[in-house]
Amino acid sequence: MHMADLDGLKVAKNYHVDTPFAYNEGFYVKGANSLDWGMQKHLSNIFDPKSGNTVMFAFDHGYFMGSTAGLERLDLLLPQLAPYVDCFMGTRGAIRSCVPPQITKGIALRVTSGSSMLQSDLSHEVVAVDIEDAIRMNADCMAVQTFIGADGQLSSIDNLSQVVNAGFRYSIPTLGVCAVGKDMERTGRFFKLATRIIAEMGVQIVKTYDCEDFEEVVAACPVPIVVAGGKKLLERDAMHLAYSVIQKGARGVDMGRNIFQSQHPLQMAEAIRKIVHEGASDAEAWEFFEDATH
């Protein structure tokens, strides 16, 4: 029997020779193209692959403020918020004790500490969490408070570099949190300087604040920017902030107080989600929020 006669008996292999290799577009997270698989996997747990954006929920306020209004019972709040956020940002103490492990959201682990509200200057921190514990917690990124233009700038950049070095060793991204020293103005000029310095140190994500010329800050920063919500605003104003920064190129928002100090935290989180992932305007998000809370 000639071998060709057997061809009809089995399903022919199909190598799709006319179809170019599919994975040639690079990776969707800004600046992460040449990172390895593990690092990109962690970034995919933070930034939604469809929208490319993230809704982070920060509840790390307790590490320097103690029990904050709205965060008294993390064990009750966090599981309820989980469906509406992409990434939880907190300390290892709060995450281990209050986030059930079956919640499969991204984890941004706060790794610096040493400040408290009892100090006049918050810019002196230390790296408090070692890389082995970040690995044990399956952290998707490690968050480092970074003070540019403050007393503690040198030790702050030293902290950041230590964490970035350890992160590269084990493929865990670092989130550089741009802190504003008490003598610094929150100007576009300052944020252009600070975000760029932090990115140049090797982080994969920068968290910062909105400012004038924000789209220029984004353009000059070679990694994604996530915007901190900051102090509690009126819900409508917080939605406007989220819409405005996403329009100008931010890849996400990190809302803490603007969610947990809202009278309706779950509906607020869902409204922010619509802006960040579904392209809703602040007016549409507000309409959703009004309907959902009345």
From TrEMBL:
Top-level division of the source organism's lineage: Bacteria
SUPFAM superfamilies listed in its UniProt record: Aldolase (SSF51569)
Alphabetized InterPro entries for the sequence: Aldolase_TIM (IPR013785), DeoC/FbaB/LacD_aldolase (IPR002915), DeoC/FbaB_aldolase (IPR050456), FbaB-like (IPR041720)
One Pfam family recorded for the sequence: DeoC
Gene Ontology MF terms in the entry: fructose-bisphosphate aldolase activity
Gene3D superfamilies (alphabetical): Aldolase class I
Protein name: Fructose-bisphosphate aldolase
Taxonomic source organism: Atopobium deltae
